[in-house]
Amino acid sequence: MSFAYAVLAVVSVTIVSLLLAFEKRLGLFKRRFRKIDVESERHGGQIVASVLKAHGVKHVFTLCGGHISPILVALDEIGVRVVDTRHEATAVFAADAVARMSGTVGVAIVTAGPGLTNTITAVKNAQMAESPVVVIGGAAATILKGRGALQDIDQMVLFKPLCKFCASVKTVRDIVPTMKRALMEAQSGTPGPVFLEFPIDTLFPYSTVISEIGIKETTKSIGQKIVNRFLQNYVENIFDRAWSDSDYSPLPVKVPFPTASQVNRCVELILKSERPLIIFGSQATLPPVPVHMLRKSLERLGIPCYLGGMSRGLLGSNSPIQVKQRRRDALKEADLVILAGAVCDFRLSYGRVLSKASKIIAVNRNRIELYKNSDMFWKPNVAIQADAASLVVEVVKKIGQSRLQLRCWMGQFITRKRT
């Protein structure tokens, strides 16, 4: 008898499991609770466009393709300029330039498959330049992935090593939260590229998707009816609650700021120094500190500065504190060096140009870049994972009216300029 009960239990569990799997595929129960507007001609491309506009995007760069056409049409309709390029890499390079010059995200939209593979070099460049670029790519319908659809490849595996955040949007209701997170991630911490994949059936209207999905209305085959129910459930899930009211406004960008104790330690070292020097990298120009505020703080501080990367031009063309020549000699003589977003890579001979006698303050948003080669050629006395410009501004506020005695030190740079 116990054996019979055991067999009955196993059979019951098996049947329930099959029914649950069947329900998951066909959605017979969930269908009762879905909210789908089958008459609406709205589409996911319009939502993508609205989110981008709400985040202040004024230009997008593209090379037109069928997978992404609903987004491009919607952007044009709401007044966002669509710039069509001759190559997808050019679109991403242009988006990268906008990101660097504007202090917000740059956006490139390209079609599936070869459209995305053509962007790889430009996306890697944005990653290494710490540039907040949003790459939006088309894709085959989720249901057709791996089945030989047009331009269908595994795009996520290509972009995960290059991007801070990657996501494939499966339903229309997921577009807004996924995009908001991607746009926030691109600008937070150490900025960098993000990738969003939009299967084609999340971008077109319900009527278009349901007509193209392959449902055969006139059939007597039980097998075909099951397939029809599966396809219907698939489409209904994509458009369930698609047009619910959503908040398109940006999520707060996460910026690492220095602590009060870190600021105090830097002030202490600066006030004790006689020959301080600051080397700036591209990170110094990142938001939230306006460039003009950083410049004003540096002029008030009066420490000689070498500018690199995107920080070139920060002090204008005739600033008395900007130094352009003989950096190696200056680094040997300095008793304090502040690496403000600058990295000890090949540009600083991996840290070998820094004097062992110098105190070193390093500040960088990226922990890896902050300590790069510190295991070999140099050691920071103070290492701060934070925004470089914010640290400078806070240090100047803390120093207040104190004046650094740097006349002799500055005189050496003036002499070098003349010689």
Task: Describe the 3D structure.
The chain contains 16 helices and eleven strands. It has 419 residues and is of the alpha/beta class. Helix 3 links the parallel strand 1 and strand 2. The mean pLDDT is 89.
Comma- or semicolon-separated keywords:
five-stranded parallel beta sheet; alpha/beta; 419 residues; elongated
Q: What would you say about this model in short?
A:
This protein is an alpha/beta fold. Helix content is 42%, strand content 13%.
End-to-end separation:
105 Å
Q: Compute the CA-based radius of gyration.
A: 28 Å
Helix/strand-derived class? alpha/beta
Global shape: elongated
- Number of discrete helical segments: 16
Which regions contain 5 or more consecutive residues with pLDDT less than 50? none
For the biggest β-sheet, the strand order reads 2-1-3-4-6-5
Largest sheet: 6 strands, parallel
Strand content: 5-15%
Overall pLDDT: 89
| N-to-C SSE string, H for helix and E for strand | HHEHEHEHHEHEHEHHHEHEHEEHEHH
Number of strands: 11
Helical fraction equals 40-55%
